[in-house]
Amino acid sequence: MRAADVTSHAFGATVEARPDPVIHVFIEADAGGRRPARANTQRIRQASDRIRQLDRAVDRQRGVMTTNLLSLPRDQRLAGRTAIVTGSSSGIGEAIAHVLAASGAHVVVHGRDVDRAEAVAAAITGGGGAASVVTGDLAESPAAARAFAAQAAEALGGWVDVLVNNAGIFPIGPTPELSDDDVAALLATNVRVPHDLVGALAPGMVERGSGAIVNITSWMAHVGTPNVGLYPATKSALEHLTQAWAAEFGPRGVRVNAVAPGATLTPGNASALEILKMMTAVSPAGQPGRPIDIAHAVRFLASDEASYIHGQVLSVDGGIVAARVG
Ligand SMILES: NC(=O)c1ccc[n+]([C@@H]2O[C@H](COP(=O)([O-])OP(=O)(O)OC[C@H]3O[C@@H](n4cnc5c(N)ncnc54)[C@H](OP(=O)(O)O)[C@@H]3O)[C@@H](O)[C@H]2O)c1
User: Fold this and answer.
1) Strand order in 313-316's β-sheet?
2) Which of 6, 92, 135 to mutate for ligand 1's pocket (most ligand atoms within 8 Å of CB)?
3) What's the pLDDT tens digit per position in 212-258?
4) Which of 85, 266, 273, 294 to mutate to test the pocket of ligand 1 (most atoms within 8 A of CB)?
5) Residue 326 forms part of a structural domain
6) Which of 8, 41, 253, 306 is most buried (most C-beta within 10 Å)?
7) Which residues contact 247 (CB under 8 A, 6 or more apart)?
8) What confidence score (pLDDT) does residue 43 get?
9) What keywords is this UniProt entry annotated with (predicted)?
């Protein structure tokens, strides 16, 4: 079965209206960023269980051990840097937050769900990393996104070195049937929010003469798929913004790039493992990706190792767009 044949709604996420405005919850952000925070064992256990469940689901079909986010090798690649990862209470963003923290960055963990965001941050700080939590619905309004940017920068000590625009939603369905609410939420979450955050945070990076922005797009932006029209279009828009922002901010020291994940098993689509397996069966990798696969690429683009890379989209998709093996 080709990816283009997949027409099910099964991997669409539901969009929930959440009443909370941006809330600032600050936990255990020790100034040096190295001292393990007091262990919040229950929260760490919750985060560990979730990670292990997803890892086991991929393991079963890969037949290989996956990387445990809770015991990542540590290094100094991002030592002294600060990073915001939107949507890091879950899935790909959660892995990105862990990986950036393992390389020494002080990370703002974010999502709408306060408990899950706190659990992720507790797991990071429990392992010796530095994490703060700032939660809120970014799609609610441009003012909410800008308030989040200000609060996250404050939590990080006043400056932001790395912004990862990861929060995203993926409701799909036949074009005539996509609800007005889904259309509005897709455009707001996947396009307007990154635009608002870059508008709020890039000037500070420019002022300091350095910064890295990584946008999370999708393999689906690179292939037409029936009944999945607007979601990939929002990611195409973000890829264009990646190039435009590289041109706008690159000459002033801020690198802007993107990572386009392939079909990756996360809480957002965990109920559709069989569909993910079918979609990826004909790709060179032959199986769904892991959040950590995406996180490693983000860390590379955020680090000085990528200092000559501007305006690129790095596909981490198991070759699903480039090749067919069946
Ligand atoms: N999984 C894949 O196969 C795949 C493939 C290609 C691209 N991607 C992209 O990768 C990114 C992450 O996907 P995922 O699979 O990891 O999704 P996920 O498990 O559903 O996680 C999405 C994250 O975004 C947050 N979020 C969503 N809407 C938000 C809003 N309005 N305000 C604040 N936070 C919001 C969620 O927060 P709460 O849950 O706490 O509310 C959660 O932390 C998305 O941009 C997605 O389009 C995913």
Assistant:
1) 23-25, 130-135, 106-109, 82-85, 162-165, 211-216, 254-261, 313-316
2) 92
3) 999 999 999 999 999 999 999 999 999 999 999 999 999 999 999 99
4) 266
5) no
6) 306
7) 311
8) 66
9) Oxidoreductase
* DSSP character at residue 271: G
Q: Quick one: which atom of ligand 1 is closest to the CA of 294? A: 10
Atom of ligand 1 nearest to the CA of 235: 47
Over the chain, what is the mean pLDDT? 86
Count of domains observed in the chain: 1
| Domain membership of residue 126 as a residue range | 3-316
In a domain, 325, yes or no: no
Average the pLDDT over 11-37 and give the result: 31
For the Cβ of 111 lying below 6 angstroms from any atom of ligand 1, the answer is yes
Q: For residues 1-21, give the mean pLDDT.
A: 30
Residues 262, 168, 270, 104: what is their CA dihedral angle, to the nearest 10 degrees? 80
321 lines ligand 1 (CB under 6 A): no
116 lines ligand 1 (CB under 6 A): yes
Q: Is 235 inside a domain boundary?
A: yes
Here the CATH number for the domain that contains residue 300 is 3.40.50.720
Reading the block at residue 99, the tokens are 């990986």
Q: Ligand 1 centre and the CA of 321: distance in Å?
A: 21
| Structure tokens that stand for 197 in this block | 């955050």
